[in-house]
Design goal:
This protein is of the alpha/beta class. The chain folds into 2 domains: 2-72; 79-272, Vaccinia Virus protein VP39 (Rossmann fold, 3-Layer(aba) Sandwich). The protein has 11 helices and 7 strands. Strands 3-2-1-4-5-7-6 form a 7-stranded mixed beta sheet, sandwiched between helices. The longest helix has 27 residues, at 46-72. The chain starts with a helix and ends with a helix.
């Protein structure tokens, strides 16, 4: 049980990506059988080629599991705690965790509060989030019920987060925006985040980006990742000011962006007008 707890994030990742890993495993088995048959029939030229393919497949299989261990297992990089600290949240603050899955991370953050409260907002929509990987991950999502006053569990949508205007200090999005294939949906959600934040409130974002380590771990699949600059631009278009960034082991990029206070908002509008005049 102890081992299972230590690697529970990796096990959940494996479950969500089950078909991919079954295909990789089947490919390795097929190559082994092919090498055996080739050696038996004297087709020796086939053996080095099959061995090279098998090594590549095994490498990416193990590299992706290594990355998953660091990203999702207890004692790993724990980006949700990094975001909490980047937001400079106190144990008495109210904040929101916008989720599509990953309630266990929200629970860990809520336990850092005393009189503060975390609103966990589920904005999943199968039409906007068609990923089968996400659907499988949600089937393994931790479900909670109880009377702990630190937690509020609510369903919402990207166009209507179920919280009043200017009601929370910070909003955390942990690998959430990348689950929306349409970037317009990301902007809609970020504008709703801006609405519920107090002036000077913070949005905390963690996403995998195109880095050397992600190329090494994911191979060609890293092409589907955005760059850090694309996430910065998205936050700015939604009306936020990027304040701080941290890259964790080249695997996940964390950003803090603030909702401008009135004076800063006026300055941003002025800058936009000057830019458009040019």
């Amino acid at each position: 049980m102890k081992s299972k707890g230590r690697y529970r994030g990796t096990l959940q990742y494996l479950y969500a990506h089950g078909p991919l890993y079954l295909t990789l495993y089947g490919g390795v088995v097929a190559l082994l059988i092919g090498m055996g048959l080739a050696a038996q029939r004297g087709w020796l030229a086939f053996v080095p080629l099959a061995l090279a393919f098998m090594i590549i497949v095994l490498y990416f299989l193990l590299a992706s599991l290594w990355a998953a261990h660091h990203l999702f297992d207890p004692g790993g990089l724990q980006p949700h705690h990094v975001l909490f600290d980047m937001a400079q949240l106190r144990e008495t603050d109210d904040f929101a965790f916008v989720a599509l899955h990953g309630r266990s991370q929200a629970i860990e953050l809520g336990r850092r509060l005393t009189t503060g409260q975390i609103a966990v907002l589920d904005v999943y929509n199968p039409q906007l989030n068609p990923s089968r990987v996400l659907a499988r991950a949600r089937s393994h999502t931790v479900s909670l019920s109880g009377s702990d006053p630190r937690f509020v569990w609510r369903n919402g949508s990207i166009s209507l987060l179920p919280l009043p205007n200017e009601s929370v200090t910070a909003v955390i999005l942990l690998q959430t925006l990348s689950q929306f294939p349409q970037k317009g949906d990301c902007e809609v959600l970020l504008k709703e985040v801006r609405r519920i934040l107090i002036p000077g409130g913070r949005v905390l974002l963690a996403e995998r980006v195109r880095t050397q380590n992600n190329w090494l771990a994911l191979g060609p699949a890293a092409l589907s990742l955005e760059t850090a600059q694309q996430w910065r631009d998205l936050l700015r278009r939604a009306g936020f000011i990027v304040r701080n960034e941290q890259n964790l082991a080249g695997l996940i990029h964390c950003l803090r962006a603030d909702k401008p206070i009135p004076i800063e908002a006026q300055q941003m509008q002025l800058d936009l007008r000057l830019t458009s005049d040019e």
